[in-house]
């Protein structure tokens, strides 16, 4: 799912208001699959669609549907503009998504939240291990080329 990154700058202009629970979808270059379930109210600046789920829709479930490769492929195939491809609201608004019962949506979203959280945790651990190995590699190279490690003694 998308992430919100706070910045120091303030934008003075027109944006689209969104509320906690709304879904924001980046309409510019939709193949980048930028979707976020808002966890606070604010104003979207730039090329975003703001969608407000009805009471019988679990926003988390809808975000997972939107981020699905099949959905993104369909949306991306409808874009206009060569340098800055965008999807139109008319196209997005007319797409039909399967809508199971709210209980099923919630169960599916909860399952995916749990599984993707584990994947994210493992990814973070692996990235940390890779960073440690890169540091070790750099230190080893430095120690060998500066003579701190005698390679003559290290070889069989």
TrEMBL record:
<dbReference type="GO" id="GO:0003677">
    <property type="term" value="F:DNA binding"/>
</dbReference>
<comment type="similarity">
    <text>Belongs to the type-I restriction system S methylase family.</text>
</comment>
<keyword id="KW-0238">DNA-binding</keyword>
<dbReference type="InterPro" id="IPR051212">
    <property type="entry name" value="Type-I_RE_S_subunit"/>
</dbReference>
<dbReference type="Pfam" id="PF01420">
    <property type="entry name" value="Methylase_S"/>
</dbReference>
<feature type="coiled-coil region">
    <location>
        <begin position="112"/>
        <end position="139"/>
    </location>
</feature>
<keyword id="KW-0175">Coiled coil</keyword>
<protein>
    <recommendedName>
        <fullName>Type I restriction modification DNA specificity domain-containing protein</fullName>
    </recommendedName>
</protein>
<dbReference type="GO" id="GO:0009307">
    <property type="term" value="P:DNA restriction-modification system"/>
</dbReference>
<dbReference type="InterPro" id="IPR000055">
    <property type="entry name" value="Restrct_endonuc_typeI_TRD"/>
</dbReference>
<feature type="domain" description="Type I restriction modification DNA specificity">
    <location>
        <begin position="47"/>
        <end position="130"/>
    </location>
</feature>
<dbReference type="InterPro" id="IPR044946">
    <property type="entry name" value="Restrct_endonuc_typeI_TRD_sf"/>
</dbReference>
<keyword id="KW-0680">Restriction system</keyword>
């Amino acid at each position: 799912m998308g992430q919100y990154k706070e910045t120091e700058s303030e934008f003075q202009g027109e944006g689209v208001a969104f509320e906690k629970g709304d879904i924001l979808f980046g309409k510019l270059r939709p193949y980048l699959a930028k979707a976020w379930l808002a966890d606070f109210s604010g104003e979207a600046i730039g090329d975003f669609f703001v969608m407000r789920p009805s009471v019988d829709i679990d926003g988390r479930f809808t975000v997972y549907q939107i981020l699905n490769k099949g959905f993104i492929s369909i949306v991306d195939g409808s874009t206009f503009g060569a340098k800055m491809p965008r999807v139109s609201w008319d196209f997005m608004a007319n797409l039909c998504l399967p809508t199971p019962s709210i209980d099923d949506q919630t169960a599916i979203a909860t399952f995916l939240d749990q599984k993707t959280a584990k994947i994210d945790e493992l990814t973070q651990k692996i990235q940390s291990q890779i960073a440690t190995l890169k540091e070790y590699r750099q230190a080893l190279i430095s120690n060998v080329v500066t003579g701190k490690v005698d390679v003559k003694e290290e070889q069989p």
